[in-house]
Amino acid sequence: MEKVTVLSSDLLFNSFLHPKYIPAGQNKYYLRNTQVCAPKNGWRHLNSSEIETLVKNDNTAMSWDNIMVTDEFDPKMIKNNKFYGFVRIGRVSSDGLQYHDLRLSIGITNSSIHSCDIGDDCAIHNVHYLSHYIIGDRCMLFNIQEMACTDHAKFGNGIIKEGEEESVRIWLELMNETGCRKVLPFDGMIAADAYMWAKFIDDKMLQDRLKTITQNSFDSRRGFYGTIGYGTVVKNSLIIKDVKIGNCAYIKGASKLKNLTINSSEKEPSQIGENTVLVNGIIGYGCRIFYSVIAVRFVLGSHSNLKYGARLMNSFMGDNSTISCCEVLNNLIFPAHEQHHNNSFLVASVIKGQSNMAAGATIGSNHNSRSNDSEIEAGRGFWSGLCTSVKHSSKFACFTMITKADYPAEIINPFPFSMISNDETKGELQVMPAFTWLYNMYAMARNEWKYVNRDTRIFKIQNIEFEAFAPDSIEEVIESRKLLSIWTAKAWLRKEGKSYENMTDKRLIETGKKLLNGKPEVVKELEVLGENMEKSKRKVVILRPYEAYHAYGDMIVFYAVKNIVKFLEENENENFESLSALFDGERKRVWFNLGGQIMSIEDVNQLRSDIKDGTLNSWKEIHHRYNEIWKRYFMDKLRHAYLSLKHMLEIDEFTVDDWTDVLNRAIDVQNYIYEQVYVTRKKDYDNYFRRATFLNEEEMLAAWGKLDKDSFILQQRKATKKFTESIQNIKKRLLSESSYEPLSILEDRKLATPVNR
Fold this sequence. Notes:
By secondary structure, this protein is α/β, with parallel strands linked by helices. The protein has 20 helices and 44 strands. It is elongated, with a radius of gyration of 31 Å.
């Protein structure tokens, strides 16, 4: 326990940097001077009349010789202050500054200033202790109890300074409560960095290299001052210690800010509000944190929000995310995550973005062993229903929706776009593959649009795939069709009283395909059971396998044609024959969601190798590699889409007839998407119980608006028309075929016959 000690007067304000950390020939301000730009005409000492005015205004200083000013200095605006150490003050005039309703005169009053550099036109009033800070131009500091920086400040970065022990290094314990996946936070860290570091813990060389790279990315010398960027406002706050604050930030009523970097700029300002406690963290550009938030050991991505009493501990939260009210511990959260409710809880998980946690969701909260909880991994688009409780260890495919229930055992769900429900009456787990495609298209399509529309980042360091159909989700779709074939075949053989114990997967797949491509009533009579999906002895029932199998096929067609059409539109010299030549070979089957950026496992492994052998020696170089992979991602995705289509159709080469059929099919699928967007939204208007709260239809329409005027439905209508026209143009240019008649839905919005339903 530290004790209060007595210091001699000469050490009281001259002990910031120990002499052993000062290089020969330098003074204790040598690093400070590198952080400050001298004014145009340089600094000067106070003249006698200025000193006289300052003394008359109740200012004191250990030595007036240690106060430096510029030629534009009005001493009348400096009142009732105590100056210690070496202080430099920029331009001071009789003008004022205003931010919202706060208006302050330029100058310094009622404050204690210790060894600081103060920029031009600053308003500093009632700052009881301001120590070792460099303050930018036009800053407003008002009613602050303590704002100080130590010589060993790391500003939230997971490094150690000269003379420090390894034990003081700050780690983030992500994805697992035991700390086995710990990473070092650093300014500029994105979700891709955190996941690569936390995921490959078995790669000891990679772990060591990433630690070394992080340590070398920052200056380990002692003596750097805290900084406040220009145009920043800090008011009515208690303790700010070892905090680096960017430009144009707004901090009001904070309780404690310690060991932080707060990134902020004029175009992407960050804001921290009342009663917040933030310790050991990195805050991205354009963030909002307010109303009694507590965050300890964290990284917050750009344009993210923490609010209304949220508690964030040992976690990384990706760009464009919002967490309110709830408790989030030991998590790695990819971009575009939403969690708004006071009674939700998330622990020891990796949530891969575009996700939403409903009220009462307790993901990973149930202890099921005598040790720490393990982990949960959820693919993109994970949505948990009201009062959902899920145990460790569980894994969910992309765009899994979980209905309200207390799930008693661990779950592995391989089906993307599915819905999981717990039927307690029958004592079984039920899974409906392709649920969102079949019954919730409005939400599915709107979410994809929403995430793109809400991405307001100016500088997009983290590359993000927002499209629902991408190599990661489509590979899960392909695997799901295989599983549905196998499990449908087994269900039929059980019904027929036949054994399948000695049958190969190949034979089962062939049998299942015949059933799933045959009469739907045959499959509907079968009880298709999932295998190795829940750690229990009860049944896992697969609902509507016939519809799901064909829905997954439609997804592959739509994914492939959408990418192929875009390529052919942008490259008029290309054709279907050149596509075949361009994309010969095997399909890449393993794709990695690296913080929101989708890349092949081959690219991930090459990235890891280049980090380990020193080809990539800094985070800047690693981020540059991400961007190089991203630049060719469209072609990688196009190749994958083309080969996925070939795989589904089981053909070696496309003919003109094949392309004609596929393109026509894609038009039908796009029309089905638009139809279902309309139908699923229309359900709300037709629902008797939803209408019950309105006195009449006029009141309902006043609240909801007219269905035909729904902006997203109109947008989808335009997209459908454009997609159809694009395909018609390509067919005319490359296939010399007469136009295919689209379904009538585009003309009069009559609902078309569902595709493959």
